[in-house]
Amino acid sequence: MERGLLAYILIPLLSAVIIPFAARNKPRLADILANVTLLAGLSNLAYLLLNANSFAEVPGDGFSLLMVFTIYLVALCVVFFSAFFAGAMPNRQAYYCLLLTSVAAMCGVVTTSDFFTLYIYVEVLAVTSFALITTDDTSAGLEGAIKYFLLTFPASVFIIVGLSLLLLSIGSFSFESVQLFLSAGMPGGTVLFAMGLILLGFLIKSGIVPFHAWTPDAYQGSFSPVSAHLAGIVTKVSGVYAIIRISMLMRLSEGMAEALAGTLMFLGMLSIIVGAIAALRQKDLKRMLAFSSISQLGYIVLAAGLGTPLAIIAAIFHLFNHATFKTVLFLNSASLEHASGTTDMEKMGGMEHAMPWTSWTSVIALLSTAGIPPLSGFWSKLLIIIALWAGGAKVYAMLALLFSIVTLAYFMVMQKKIFFGKKSEAAETASEVSAPMLAPVVLLSAVIITVGLLFPWFYTYLVETIAKRMIL
Predict the structure, then answer these.
(1) C-beta of residue 310 within 8 angstroms of C-beta of residue 394
(2) In terms of Cα–Cα distance, which of 356, 365, 390 is closest to 443?
(3) What contacts 240, CB < 8 A, 6 or more positions away?
(4) Phi/psi of residue 124, each to 5°?
């Protein structure tokens, strides 16, 4: 555990304990405490990331620090949005307690330096996610939570068996011990099998094809801000983060590790294809965005499987970008549901005039998702394609480029149906959501544009202050 980042775990956890008592008779105080906690943490993290001198003094690698920053950024946007979306939500205090506990758990996942502690935090995150999915007490939410539990439970079994084999083989769970064991050229068959089981568990928790069955139902059935929380950051931290870490270790060895890396790349490409094609066929907005998430996570896993330094940087960059643009899209889906009372795209035509801010922030996010320049998503996808081409995976590179076009196609269909299509009954009565509900999506849209326009500086920063400390 990195002591310099320990406060980002403990403070939200402390707030989660205080909220039920402090806000017992004043539910709105829970909103204030949750927002102040996350805003204070995010402000300090922004200073650490942007101040080169202080960054050099931060313990651990830059990957962990960037992930903690991303967690706080997404969580603050979700919490701030929820404060004005939820209205008279009866279990307000419990909702914020769970969100802050999930933030603490995610920060624990990305700051630990051994697999067992990482697993413990992932399980805490799974429990809070299960509870959050049922926030609004609907049958859809309960169904989504049950599917989430039943279909991700086997993942925990695979991970714990893999951890047991890892302990028996090398006597340690630490990333450093695994690295030393593999780099020393010692026989690593059992260790690599253990790593394969751990990897399989985290692939399931990520919702990568063919382990994606729980994802659309969980996202569709969840309380709308929770969908943004799950898609924006939870699935990335509970699964994809660990996959990237493991891929750093696998590329240090040969033989069986190469087979694991090849499997990872295949499943990443399969997720890109299946997610994109399935998204084209959806009528429900949240379900379409869920399949889109599966497809975009495929790009990250594909790059992580390649495992070259450029591919790892590209995977991390796309992970950050995906957190921003997917949170925008899911928060906008919550706004549309709030204004129209439905997530059926066929019933929301012509919303652009009623909700112009929601419309144009969606355009920014979808263009970034599809990899249109000069937005942030273009650069991370370009890096992934260049890394694949340079690494000899030219077929994967061409397919990744092709399905970026498919991504643009299904998002254009979505935008036309919801905002630019024939004016629906919902559009007649709908109006733009309040300025506080728009603030998080405008902030994230600004991040998408800024990172895209300042890419040369951002890439140099990524290499100089993160990549050099990132590779184990």
Answers:
(1) no
(2) 365
(3) 202, 206, 297, 300, 301, 304, 319
(4) -60, -40
If one counts every other C-beta atom within 10 angstroms of the C-beta of residue 189, the result is 10
Q: What are phi and psi of 246, to 5 degrees?
A: -65, -40
* Count: domains in the chain: 1
**pLDDT at residue 56 greater than cutoff 90:** no
- What tens digit of pLDDT does each residue of 245-287 get? 888 777 644 555 677 888 899 999 999 999 999 998 888 888 8
Taking alpha carbons only, the member of 354, 357, 332 closest to residue 414 is 332
| Residue 340, token pair as written in the block | 């129209």
- Amino acid found at 93: Q
Confidence at residue 92, expressed as pLDDT on a 0 to 100 scale: 83
Q: How many CB atoms lie within 10 A of CB 18?
A: 16
Q: Helix 62-85 to helix 27-50 angle, to the nearest 10 degrees?
A: 150
Residue 178: both structure tokens together = 């695994």
| Dihedral, CA of residue 64, residue 65, residue 69 and residue 72, to nearest 10 | 60
Q: How far apart are CA 332 and CA 357, in angstroms?
A: 10
Phi, psi dihedral angles at 284 (to 5 degrees):
-90, 130
Q: Give dist(CA 461, CA 467) in Å, integer.
A: 9
Give the SS3 label for residue 136: coil
Structural domain that includes position 301: 3-470
What gap in Å lies between CA 430 and CA 227, rounded to an integer? Answer: 22
Half-sphere exposure of 155 (CA within 13 A, CB side): 25
Distance CA 128, CA 104 (A): 11
Percent of the chain that is helix, strand, coil (3-state, to 5) = 80, 0, 20
16 near 97, Cβ under 8 Å?
Answer: yes
Q: What number is the average pLDDT over the span 386-397?
A: 92
Mean confidence (pLDDT) of the chain:
85
In the three-class reduction of DSSP (H, G, I as helix; E, B as strand; rest coil), residue 174 is classed as strand
Farthest-apart Cα atoms in the chain, separation: 69
d(CA 384, CA 305): 11
Specify the DSSP class assigned to residue 347: G
CA neighbor of 324 nearest in space, from 148, 78, 96:
78
Beta carbons of 426 and 340 less than 8 angstroms apart: yes
Give the lowest-confidence range in 61-75, 112-126, 254-268: 254-268
* Residue 432 φ/ψ region, left for φ over 0, alpha for ψ in the -120 to 50 degree band, beta for the rest: beta
Helix (H, G, I), strand (E, B) or coil at 255: coil
CA 435 → CA 85, 92, 335, distances in Å? 11, 21, 11
User: Helix axis angle, 7-22 relative to 92-111, nearest 10°?
Assistant: 170
